[in-house]
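It would be a great kindness if you could assist me with a short task in structural biology. The matter concerns a single protein, recorded as an amino acid sequence and a row of backbone structure tokens. The record follows directly beneath this note:
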Amino acid sequence: MDDDNTFDPAWVRSVAWHFDGNDDSKLVYGVRLVDDVRRHHLHHPGGLPALELNDWNREVFHERNLIDVNVIAHRRGDARFDGDLPLFSDWDYLFQLTRDHDPYRLPVIAARYSTGQPDRATFTNRPNHDEFYERVRTRHRPRT
């Protein structure tokens, strides 16, 4: 979880409920409540809050990350963040978590996402954006 975001109090209860009744489930993701959707997507403040919960689609996921790492819960495993990726390390981590199992979409607010911090990592490493994007996509090329 990023330091400027917060979990919703009902999220942990919902995750425990799901995992308790679904032994085969490895990863769940929930709703992200974004405080200013215009600032989040267009980088200009003044938008309304919005709920985000994408449907899971492995093909689309290979083109762009569908799940914010702030709204996931998973069982213990060997997935790890790559410290050599200043961008897209969350996407890389989610590729690892979903390699063998699709995640379960849990329609519960998981996190409240703040867009107000000026030094957010999303914006600080733009010069190498394409290089790191391609590195993650290549690393997790779909199996044929």
The first strand starts at residue 6 and ends at 7. The longest helix spans residues 9-21. The beta strands are 6-7, 27-34, 50-52, 72-74, 104-113.
